[in-house]
Structures are given as structure tokens and as C-alpha cells.
Amino acid sequence: MSGIFHNIGILAHVDSGKTTLTEQLLYLTGAVRQAGSVDAGTASTDSLSVEKQRGISVRTATASTVYNGVTINIIDTPGHIDFAGEVERALSALDYAVVIVSAVEGVRAHTENILKSLDNANLPRIIFINKIDRAGSDTDKVINELKNISPQVHLVLSSAENEGLENPVVRRIDDDEFAVRATETLADINDEAEEAFLNETVLSYERAEEIVREEISSCRLTPVVFGSAKYSVGIKDLADVLVKFMPDSTRRETEDLCGIIFKIEHDKSLGKVSHIRLFGGEIANRDEVELFVPESRQKVESDAVEVEEKPPVKEKVSQIKKFSGARITDTGIVKRGDVAAVCGLPSAKTGQFIGSLAVSEKAKLVNPFLRVKVTPADSDPLKLPSLAAALGELSDEEPYIDAKWENGQKEITISTTGKIQLEVLGNLLKERYDLSAEFSPPTVIYKETPARKGTAYASYTMPKPCWAVVEFLFEPMPRGYGVSYHGRLPSNQCFYRYQSHIRTSFNSCLEQGLYGWEVTDFRCTLVGGEHHTIHTHPLDFFVCTPMAFMNGLSQLGSTILEPLLKIRVTAPEELSGKIFSEIIKMGGEYDTPVIRSGIVSLEAIVPVATSMNFPEKLAALSSGKAVLSQSFYGYRECRDGNEHINPRRGVNPLERSKWILWARGAYSAEK
Prior knowledge:
The chain is an alpha+beta fold.
């Protein structure tokens, strides 16, 4: 392998041609003898049976190849919104993204989300406008759509002939035209190019190249190329642009040993396999490495006592492998800038860092907004522990599954983003663990927030020996704020180690509020607390804090928040009235529609709870002519007037006597 690394992600809306493009790049560079087919189930990056059966990617796959002396590690991601979590984690490992947009369908809602996430993560990207061979291809329209939704400047490096036919031709612009286009395009963002443009001169080819590379790396310029992955048109042009203009791994390098686990999979012979991107240092077989968890969801505040950090987990690497198409090779070492599969880290989880947290850029794409109950298909309660263990292992691979089960409960609950994800889980449970599971109809994941400002208080001074007093101030904050924690009391009033216990317990309390939902969008300040030098036991504040937390919510009230979707509908104009009527029935709000050539396009915000059957309704009333795309939008106060309660796991701290006994291990929730 070469010493120059490009770690690239292939990102797009479902059915845009991601896996086909990956196969063509691997074939072009000699990594595979023949480009695989998604439809035929022969794609080298689609290994699960459900991927081959459905013809879609549902898990992130990696493949490594070399082109013109550059090692290109390709991370092929799923395009379906159900698997956006896979994309989110892949972004953390990339140097840049190849975003595929269909020349026919244009920029879909999920693609728009991807571009925004790339902006948030400060990651460069190149646009590959695919499917120019299909009838209805309109590259000019797609470029205009991109300009309308992205703050970046777009530099088109291709020209297309026979667009919309099965024999399209793509040519990269020549050197002279490149210098002219670069000067004109860069004039909006670069002083040197602006001066040349105003003086009616053109940058030299060499200087234009240099500035283009700089502006792509600084995330102000996006190159655009055309092609047809199906017919292998424009693939070499794309590869040439990648190695010539896109940034290599040095853009995100660090001196410390640092890597991120962006994918976990389980192999029958190798056990748990951790796919990592290394930002700094190197790892060899038999090296011992430390595993770190990224910062928690709470906002770090300087005026609060920090949570006592657990020492990082140390584990020994047994094998290091590389994937190249369908081939797997032992390398024994992975160096800075590279991607590899590491074996021998039994406690590893997706999203963890290796070595240090030196690089921890974040990008958010997905919020699971549905939860389902999982039970053994034959209702055998003796299989619940095995099913819970299997789902726990799958949660290591896909953290958003978030499997929850407490001994004594008759069901397990998991989070999900859609029906296809459940189908995949069912397949994995059967194939890997020989377990058959049934999934309940999905229910919406609501959240809750304190209804008004006020204090939350509890004292735990009986029965002796014990002594803990906790008082918080809760302040509601705007939607999307999250949770922040503040407050530092004098140590002689409450030892700092006890204040650390309070904060740790507070973080756990957020999982279940007054109605059993996650509590969010408020600011918490520790304003009072007390210990006793003789009677306080180290665990007393873990008993008292949940009581204070729930007392506060009980007294202040809790407002239920419902999840919303942003939908985009394109349909024949004559269906406008029926579509508007459906949106109003769902309690949604829509923007002014755009009508062109008899086609109406509209965007709306609708509650998840009322829109779960909308795709089927839209397909029925339009006879399949309408196109729908949807993405998570956020939360708002619930307006349906219903009381949404999520059954609590464990004992409620509001039941003080039971809670104290349970927390001290003297009471079982099964009683």
C-alpha cells in the first residue's frame, strides 16, 4: 500500500447508485476482476443475505484499492433513511465524501440532509451526478438545485453529450477551459481569483489547480462531475479528480495515537471485528490499546464539578486485516491515515475512540423516533435472556438500536427508524443467533421537558446510617437545546466527590421522566446539597438524586414533546387538493407549493404519530405517480391532547419507600 491515503465515503439517497459506483471504482483500479451487480446480488460490498435479496445496502462496507500511487479506502454507506446511523458514523472516519445525485430525480431530502451534515462536520465533498443515461436526465437542473441548498461554490469539471440516452459521453474539460472556469468560479471566494477576473485575465493553470485544492480542503468549493455508474461512464474522470484535487488523510492527522471505531461486525471465526480509521500513531498485532467513549450528550460547563471519569478500558489487538474488494489480507499493522479491521477488542463499541479523543468531530444525521417491543416468536420466556444478549451485541454494532431489558420484564424494547431496519434485525437474529423474534407495531418515541422553572429537592436521612440532601434548579430551554448541568457547592457543604456522584446520577435520571420518556431541553443547576461526615455512605447520593429529580418533575409538571418529520412531495398538479387535505388531517403545516409543467412540489412538517401511514395513502391516491421523501425535523410540544405514558423500567423514585429499598438492594421489582 502507498503512503498517501484517501479515506472516502460514498453517500447518497437510496437507489442513487452508490454500490454500483463503488464496484466500478474497484474494477477500474484492479481490486476486483469484474464489477459486481447490486441487482444480481454479486456486489463485493454487499455481504448480508438481506442485501442480496433486496438489492440495497443496509450496512457500511469498506474496500481498499490503489490508483495512481494513492491508497483509496472506500466506505460504501447505505442510502435508505432507516440506516442513516451507519452514514453518521462513517462521516467521522472520512477525509471527504463522494455525494451521488441522480440526474433524473435530483437532490432528494436525504441527500440534502447529508450535505448539511457534511457542512456541520466541516468535511469536503465532490458531487457525482449519476444516471445521465436515463430519460429525463437534466444536469443543469441538478446543479441549480445544489446551488440553492448549499452555501458552497460549485465548479463543474465535466461536459456531457447524449444526455438521456444509453450511450452518453462524458469528457473532462481541458486545461485552458479549466483555468477559465476556475477563475470565474473562484472569484466569489478567493481574492486572487477575484482580482484576475476583474482585470479580465485568467489564472495560470498551475495556480488555478493550487487554489482549487485549497478551497476544496477549506470546504468552500465543491467540484462536480458527471457520469453513469451503470455503463462505467465518467468513472476514470472521477478517479482522476479524486487523486488530483481532493485532500488526503494529512488534513485530519494528529500526533497522538488516535482512531475511531466506525463499524463493528461479528465474524464466526474472528469474533468481534472493529473497523477503525487511524488519525495518528500506529497499531500492530499484540499492541495494547485504550478505548475511550466520546463526550456525553450533556453540555460541559466550567462551573460544575466534573464527573469522576472511569479509567479507559485496555485491550490487546490480536489481528489486523485489510479488505480489498472481496479479498481479505493480514497486514499486522495499521498506520496513521489508514483504515483497517482490528480483531481482539471484545468490549469495543461503534463510536468509541482508540488511544485518545484528539479528533472528535461530530455530525448528526439520525434520530430514532420509533420504538418497538421484541419478544421470542414462540413466546417462550426462557429465551428472553438469549434474545436480550443478542440484541445487546447488535447494539454494539448499531448504537441507535438501544436495546433495553431488565430481568423480570416479559419484553425487550429497541429503537428503530423504520420497517426495513426491523426486517434486517430479524434476519440477523435468525442467521447469526438462530433466534426467531416478533416485533410489535412501532410506537412513537416522545420526549418530555420541565413545564416551568422551579426547584427539585429531596433529603435522604432515614433510615440510618445515611445522609444526603440534593436541591436542583430546573429551567426550561428552547427546543433543540438539549441538557446542560451547572453548579459547584463549597466542599465543606458537600464534598466534591459527592457532587460528582450527584452529576453522574443526574445523567442517568434523564432516561426516564415523569411519563417515562427521556427528559431534555432544560438547564439544571445544583443549588443545594449536604453530606454528613459520619452518617453519609458513598452511595447515598445515588439514592437521593433520582428522588430529587422526580420530585422536581412532579411539582413543576412535565411537557410532552412529539417528533416531527419534514416531507417533500412531488406529484401531478391535479392531486394538490387531496395532498393538502391529508397534510391538514395529520396536523401538519406546509409551505407555498411550487408548480411547474403540471407538477406540484411542496414541503410540509408533520407529526410522526399521524404520518406513519402517509406513504401508503399517497401511493394509493396517486396510483404510484407521487414521489415522497422524508427526514427527521425535530421536536415540538405535543398538540393532540392525549396523555402519552411510557411504562417505567424499574422502581419509580416517587414511590419513596420502595425506591430506597430497591436502591439499597433490599427489594426486587419483580415482586
